[in-house]
Amino acid sequence: MSANDRPSGQPTKTYDSAFLKACRREPVPHTPVWFMRQAGRSLPEYLKVREGIGMLESCMRPELVTEITLQPVRRHKVDAAIYFSDIVVPLKAIGVDLDIKPGVGPVVAEPIRTRADLGRLRDLTPEDVSYVTEAIGMLTGELGSTPLIGFAGAPFTLASYLVEGGPSRNHEHTKALMYGDPQLWADLLDRLAEITSAFLKVQIEAGASAVQLFDSWVGALAPADYRRSVMPASAKVFDAVASYGVPRIHFGVGTGELLGLMGEAGADVVGVDWRVPLDEAARRVGPGRALQGNLDPAVLFSTRDAVETKTREVLDAAEGLEGHVFNLGHGVLPTTDPDALTRLVEYVHTRTTR
Question: Can 15 be counted among the known catalytic residues?
């Protein structure tokens, strides 16, 4: 049973939260707000507790994960917490030799480019990530009525890191494999879909109220390539967790041309970056799904008046949507003033109180 279920007709602590209501496209008391990367380098308290501790090690310490996840909830009064982790954690947990290098990102020692390499990607078990179960148990006890969002990297983005060996601007090795050996590519994404599904199930069963699938790099693809070579694996992940009844969010960057397909893959909520207004995004996604987004993260470096003006534009574009979760169009930038985020939450809440 998940934290989003309503057992025997009795609501759980998080069921009637503004965030989960918006995800379910129900009337809300105010537009809920949370931020991708809300727990991170923009917070001095985060930098203090992470001092001298590597990223991957940080993700494996339940007490530290709990503290970091709670920090933005305490400071900003956001409507949801997002579990502190990294998309490569499940890959590390099954034995992939990788590290997260400061200023670079995930780096894989031996890229996966042949059929023989697939054997290195074994199934993920709950025991592999027992620290996740422990941390989420601690978090749900602390969060009370505030929902916790679990997350994972989507098969395409994980495959990109594995095939390239690290972050890539052009994804040349990834696309070469996708076009040159479509069967190996399909088998790779299917294996990653299994691993991702298992990772999300661990989080939901531990108490996550919703899950978000990050497909950070999928905007590099044309719609036809997405439909043929990526969508089946993403749909497999969403199908795998459908029976839990928790909202499923799908987010990518530069995905304006893919929004309809990303919803079609099985998401209940489609994340929108800042390049497409929410009213246009709603037209592309179609009915039956909520939207999440989409203030440009760079706007927060401008004046208070400018932030409020751009925020009103987002809220105006969201007027009449079936469901809207306010967020940035991507993650919080590291040098963002935390006070600007706190003011933004307060402004959205005040302006949208019903």
Answer: no
User: Position of tokens 């399909």?
Assistant: 186
Say whether 122 is catalytic.
Answer: no
Which residue is listed with tokens 């987010």? 251
Per-residue confidence band for 354, with pLDDT thresholds at 50, 70 and 90? confident
pLDDT, residue 4, reads: 43
> Rounded to an integer, what distance in angstroms lies between the CA atom of residue 254 and that of residue 24?
25
The answer to whether 316 is a known catalytic residue is no
86 is known as an active-site residue? yes
161 is an active site residue: yes
Residues near 316 by Cβ (< 8 Å), separated by ≥ 6? none
Instruction: Choose the catalytic residue: 15, 46, 50, 191.
Output: 50
Q: Which of 37, 75, 113, 191 is catalytic?
A: 37
Sign for the pseudo-dihedral over CA of 275, 277, 281, 283: negative
Q: Which element (helix H / strand E) includes 328?
A: strand 324-328
Residue 257's Cα: distance from chain center in Å? 19
Strand partners, 213: 152, 250
Catalytic pick among 15, 46, 83, 161: 161
**C-alpha distances in angstroms, 200 versus 1, 109, 121, 187?**
14, 25, 17, 20
- Report the alpha-carbon distance of residue 59 to residue 50 in Å, rounded: 10
Q: Which residues contact 105 (CB under 8 A, 6 or more apart)?
A: 166, 167
- Residue 2 — very low, low, confident or very high, per pLDDT cuts 50/70/90? very low
SS3 state at 114: coil
Residue 290 half-sphere exposure toward CB, CA atoms < 13 A: 24
Q: Position of tokens 């439909």?
A: 227
| Other CB atoms within 10 A of residue 21 CB | 18
Report pLDDT digits (tens) over 249-300: 999 999 999 999 999 999 999 999 999 999 999 999 999 999 999 999 999 9
| Six token digits for residue 262 | 């990303």
Other CB atoms within 10 A of residue 304 CB: 12
Among the listed residues 5, 61, 86, 117, the single catalytic one is 86
CB 336 within 8 A of CB 37: no
- Answer for the pair 149, 73: CB distance below 8 angstroms, yes or no: no
Strands 290-295 and 324-328, by their bridges, are parallel
